[in-house]
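Progress narrative, Year 2. Work on Manganese ABC transporter, periplasmic-binding protein SitA from uncultured Thermomicrobiales bacterium advanced from sequence curation to structure prediction during this period.
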Amino acid sequence: MQHTFSRRRLLAGATALSLGAGIVSSVHRPRSVSAGSGLNVIATTGQVADAVRGIAGDLVSVAAIMGPGVDPHTYTPSQGDIERLSNADAILYSGLELEGRFDEVFESLESEKTIVAVAESIPPEQLVASPQYPDQFDPHVWFDPAIWDFAIAAAAAALVEADPDNAATYEANATIYRDQVRAFDAYATQVLGTVAPERRVLVTAHDAFNYFGRRYGFEVVGIQGISTETEAGVNDLQMVAQLIADRQIPAIFVESSVSGSTIEAVQAAVRDRGFEVVIGGQLYSDAMGDEGTPEGTYVGMFTANVNTIATSLGGSLTPATPLPATPAVATPLS
Ligand code: ZN
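Result:
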């Protein structure tokens, strides 16, 4: 599979929105807009849909194709999905080959509507290469809020382009949403910083946490590789089990969108080596939690991950500095 950077139109997320351009007052008041824009936006993943919701509020109807527990690497759009995509005014997806099976439908629609890969607005030098596919980048960029910020800005720019009449509202909301993500990032840094340095090892089924590891100083061991389409080899599994036993890592993690069998096999292999590792809980990797729950939002699911990782590895949820209010659910202007 080839890179798609040049194939689809990308928006320069970083420059499209000028932060702090004097649009937003510190008081978060609803704007008097008589009705929604009528814009119908379809996002692929929950993370992208959450950004659109935060930026657009009630102005836009937004739906995610992939709900809780769905694996974007292997998800093939159904006939119904293709109809929804065809009927949308704009399509926002994550990109960097995350939703590899959507390529064909996006190509067939790209001349008709705004289609934006929000993560492909991140400067390449801030991306991590895929260990499996040397000509590709690791697509799990939402786990570094500092670079996901570019994706949020790109989503805002896409909405502004599709509906320029409401540009000021989208830009104001985007600033609020980006601030919430920054506040979360500060929270995560504090809480994860309470894990002892020798325990900052995150073992998961697939390699979704490389950006997380880079951002928060964790060594990351994914057994299955970047995409769930690659199978875990027996050797990989035994090597990971040996590492866990040697370093006495207390917990490993299952993911909501990946079968738990690989992690359970690792746990058994660690036990064969005379060490007990617990399954520290379920992390949200590529899919978010149920809609209407805190984990159904970007900040909420990420907060749940941070809390699960920190407590399972011996950290604390009560760092010295007061924490921002969590989970920060966007209450956008509309
Ligand atoms: Zn993944």
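Confidence is low (pLDDT under 50) at residues 1-34, 326-330. The pocket of zinc ion is lined by residues 73, 140, 206, 208, 285-286 (CB under 6 Å).
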